[in-house]
Amino acid sequence: MLEQYGIPLWAEKLIMSGGILVGTIFAAYVVRIILRFVAHRFARKTASKLDDLIIEAVSKPVFNLIIVGGLDFEIKYLHESFEFISEGTYKLLHGIAFAFAMVLIGWLTIRFSESITTWYAKNIAARTETKFDDEFIPIFSRSLKAIVFVLVLMAVLSHFNIDVKGLVAVLGVSSLAFALAAQDTLANMIAGFILMLDRPFRVGDRVTLADDRILDVYEIGLRSTKFLTRDNTLVIIPNAEISKMTIDNLSYPAPQVRVRIEVGVAYGSDIDRVKELLLEAAHSHPDVIKEPKPFVQFINFGESSLDFRLNVYVADYSIQRPTGHAVRELVYKIFGKENIEIPFPQRVVYLYEQDKEKEKKD
What we know:
Elements: H1 9-44, H2 50-81, H3 87-123, H4 132-159, H5 165-181, H6 183-198, E1 206-208, E2 214-220, E3 224-228, E4 234-238, H7 239-242, E5 248-249, E6 257-265, H8 271-283, E7 295-301, E8 306-314, H9 320-337, H10 356-361
Antiparallel strand pairs: 1-2, 1-5, 2-3, 3-4, 6-8, 7-8
């Protein structure tokens, strides 16, 4: 094409190869400019910063990938144009370029995923009450890096015609051994996923376990959940065990909790008057809410007393015990003023004196 200007064919080929090299660098910088400036302007118009993070993450890998692709095309052109580059040399250089390209694709994948996880950690995980996602994000990142590394390695080995079946078999056996060794950990992690999706309780909720323990949820982790007892001691239960339990959530869907106060009065007491006095004690305490209304139940004819139950509601479980304590004090004081007797347990014992003469005959 340039021979008409007196330029030999070999020089023309060198000029073309130089043009390919310059065009590759030019294309790489044009793409970088488009990503950094044009795309950034569109991304800034959106409320989310996720697109900015993605553009920032993929800019370098895409730039280097274009350079490697251009160099691979340059090698192919030189191989087809000049005899000094043998077939073996070309295959070796092409293989090296392919390996670099696969590494860059893996790097691009990791940076893309890290931009998403970074955005999630700052904007979503920071607002959640559970620390589950805070623990899950690092594990997800490490697992993704390991998977990408294995896939890149297998692709490169396969390109160089190296049998990867043995590697796949070793990885399969290793995965099986790892799964068997870590089956308890995996079971707890899967149960943790279920707890995150189902959300039977949240951090701060008060729950009753199957063994009647009343605990406050302190932290929901990836492998276990931590609870606080009323004595402020920490109880750690694996998530796999929690997923099998029947749990009563005292805080959800509403934090209102009922307080039961049981009291017995002497036989012969005025039942209606007892009910009035119990309701008076309930209404006089400021922590007892008006809705649902307090109510009284006559629950039993006891051995020594007529048994009543006063049911009141408080706005939050944290004041359940103090309110019950205070209302019991009020009931005792009001009953004392109104001469309502709270009887002691009573037993009637009958003594029979046997006939002494009969006893002697026997």
